[in-house]
Amino acid sequence: MSEEEIAKLPGVGPAILDKLREAGYNDLMMIAVDSPRNLAELTEIGEATAAKIIAAAKKAADVGGFETGDVILERRKTVAKLGSCSKALDELMGGGFETRAITEFFGEFGSGKTQLCHQMAVNTTKPVADGGLDGHTIMIDTEQTFRPERITQMAEASELDPDEVLKKIHVARAFNSHHQTLLVDKAFETAKEFPVRLIVVDSLTAHFRAEYIGRGALAERQQMLNKHMHDLLRFGDVHNAVIAVTNQVSAKPDAFFGDPTRPIGGHIVGHTATFRIYLRKSKGGKRIARLIDSPNLPEAEAVFMVSEAGISD
Ligand code: ADP
Ligand code: MG
Known about the structure:
alpha/beta; DNA polymerase, domain 1; Rossmann fold; nine-stranded mixed sheet; two-stranded antiparallel sheet; binds magnesium ion
């Protein structure tokens, strides 16, 4: 459908269509909102041609105008909330993790990021009345830390049939950052077949951090991360799905700025994530979650537990 629209643009023949496809442009809007320079670079066509195609895409796409607040409020009512199995954490999040938004968990190794993602995948299968979304999960696993055994334990603790739950979690390993971004396209395909209501990227940043080294690579890394996160947001919008991403930080011994930890991904991840939750370990399996950044909720903390049964108060 979208590709047909792109093919109809004046100036887009089969060769250019191929180049656009290869560069990941599968939607009129993606072209319409891009800059000629970026499009030219990614597709290896001339900048003048790129500008013409963008102008045509702008005409053809509904770039959107302004909406009044009441219309937006009406749409906000369709936002659903996913429970975490911890009342305190749900309260911190204003009732649960919102659909159509990116929730970023950042914290040190072992702070509970992956455990939370597992619990969210289990909870997504639950009926809405039980804090679920009655749906499936897509998990992009970049560190190979997905454990079906953990899903089984958590499902049993919630009195769910573990086999049924496992069948609703679609996991793909991402071997590098490029593969990771391509898996979002795959997710759109999977979502045609299954009602996917949660997409997890655990970890969002590890591959990017390992691959783009040094100051010279920073701009490109941020650009790729930015596009990846916007693809995720689009998935969340189209499928009214929760988006959960993780981001590891390491404590610096010579803490200079008070908080010794800083999430990587810098401004791009920080500004694109709708909710940022800083996780840290406390005594006896306890974890502290601090909501750092939210468009509509106060900065606050919640304490929860990670145990064999999963997340709890
Ligand atoms: P990260 O933030 O690095 O992703 P994890 O979410 O994987 O960290 O958290 C790992 C921690 O979760 C372990 O150190 C342990 O405290 C806890 N954990 C993992 N599995 C279990 C289990 N079966 N029973 C109790 N605690 C567990
Ligand atoms: Mg992890």
